[in-house]
Amino acid sequence: MLIKYESVTGEVTTVEASADIGEFITVSRREEANSDRREHRHCISLDGIQYEGREYGTRDDSEDTEERDAKVKKAISHLTDIQKRRILMLSGGLSEREIARREGKDYKTVHESIDAARKKFMKFFQ
Asked: pTM score, two decimals?
């Protein structure tokens, strides 16, 4: 069985391989092409992204850090102990579902608590 390899430069090389090896390469190439087609819809072009804004963690340097830290402390002081604990767990990388499992609470209860904490917190930054 003849197997063709195409290099990056466009040069084509043909190699003779046994039927088993040739079949393996053919199947492997087909699977790779199918995977590429499936994943094509899940990709975005990095050329179309603006590297600024909230999604990329760009800081708003319009206020100094001391003033911002004071706002954060004041905002946190308005949260309940449960909300503080859940926000800390969330910022530590746990999902809301994992927090609910650890606390033995319903997911909806934890979600609503965290959502209320976010709303309270954001009042200080508007």
From this structure: 0.48
